């Protein structure tokens, strides 16, 4: 898909994309819609580029097995990397800045690309799956301070271990984080 002029509105729809995605106009995906990328057996890396923030943010995005690379900064609600199969992998290379306002589910390979991930939600967010080793974050910044108690009402719930190769920052002292005992 190459959106170069005007506006594209996929509100309340499932959009399946099996190739490169370039948005150089306005791409509207209300919170109820799902933006879904698939390789459809393509062997090359699929690129996501152009305006992928603000009013053209990707919202709910899900990656099926394949290779994906962000060429532009991006904002999402939920960010999901699906589990690979016995014969395929799922690899996502992050942009310089990736802002996630919803849940982060990572069951493939997340290459941080020396970038920063913001957890920017206004309600509790959950991070699950693999976030260590080759899928560790580079810089992880928690902007979400919606929680009131680390156990019963956290801002961010880490349901598995997570690590960074750079700074791990909670921007406000009032941010409540919950980690598993094994993390």
Write up what this structure looks like.
This protein has 183 residues and is mainly beta. It has strands at 2-3, 7-9, 14-17, 21-23, 26-28, 34-37, 46-50, 59-63, 66-70, 74-81, 90-93, 97-100, 104-106, 109-111, 116-119, 125-129, 139-142, 156-158, 168-170, 177-178. Strands 3, 6, 8, 10, 12, 13, 15, 16, 17, 18, 19 and 20 form a 12-stranded parallel beta sheet that branches. The protein has a 6-stranded parallel beta sheet with strand order 1-4-7-9-11-14, with no helix packed on it. It has a two-stranded parallel ribbon with strand order 2-5. The protein starts with a strand and ends in a 5-residue tail after the last strand. The relative contact order is 0.12. The model has no long low-confidence stretch (mean pLDDT 85).
Layout of strands and helices, then pairs:
Layout lengths: L1 E2 L3 E3 L4 E4 L3 E3 L2 E3 L5 E4 L8 E5 L8 E5 L2 E5 L3 E8 L8 E4 L3 E4 L3 E3 L2 E3 L4 E4 L5 E5 L9 E4 L13 E3 L9 E3 L6 E2 L5
Parallel strand pairs: 1-4, 2-5, 3-6, 4-7, 6-8, 7-9, 8-10, 9-11, 10-12, 10-13, 11-14, 12-15, 13-16, 15-17, 16-18, 17-19, 18-20
**Quaternary organisation:** single chain
Main beta sheet, described? Answer: 12 strands, parallel
- Which stretches are poorly predicted, pLDDT < 50 over at least 5 residues? none
Distance between the termini: 40 Å
* Helix-residue proportion: under 10%
Rg value: 16 Å
By secondary-structure content and strand pairing, the structural class works out as mainly beta
Tally of DSSP β-strands? 20
Order of helices and strands: EEEEEEEEEEEEEEEEEEEE
Number of helices: 0
Beta-strand percent range = 35-45%
Give the mean pLDDT.
85
Q: Using the alpha-carbon principal axes, give the shape.
A: globular
């Amino acid at each position: 898909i190459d959106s170069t002029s005007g506006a594209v509105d996929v509100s309340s729809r499932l959009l399946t994309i099996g190739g490169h995605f370039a948005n150089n106009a306005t791409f509207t995906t209300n919170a109820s819609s799902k933006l879904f990328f698939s390789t459809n057996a393509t062997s090359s890396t699929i690129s996501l580029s152009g305006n992928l923030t603000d009013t053209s943010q990707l919202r709910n995005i899900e990656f099926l097995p394949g290779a994906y690379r962000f060429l532009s900064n991006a904002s999402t609600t939920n960010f999901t990397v699906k589990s690979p199969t016995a014969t395929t992998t799922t690899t996502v290379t992050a942009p310089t800045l990736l802002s996630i306002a919803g849940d982060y589910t990572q069951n493939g390979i997340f290459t941080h690309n020396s970038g920063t991930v913001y957890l920017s939600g206004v309600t509790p967010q959950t991070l699950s799956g693999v976030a260590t080793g080759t899928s560790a974050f580079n810089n992880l910044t928690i902007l979400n301070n919606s929680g009131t108690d680390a156990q019963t009402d956290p801002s961010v719930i880490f349901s598995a271990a997570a690590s960074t190769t750079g700074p791990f920052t909670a921007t406000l002292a009032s941010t409540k984080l919950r980690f598993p005992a094994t993390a």
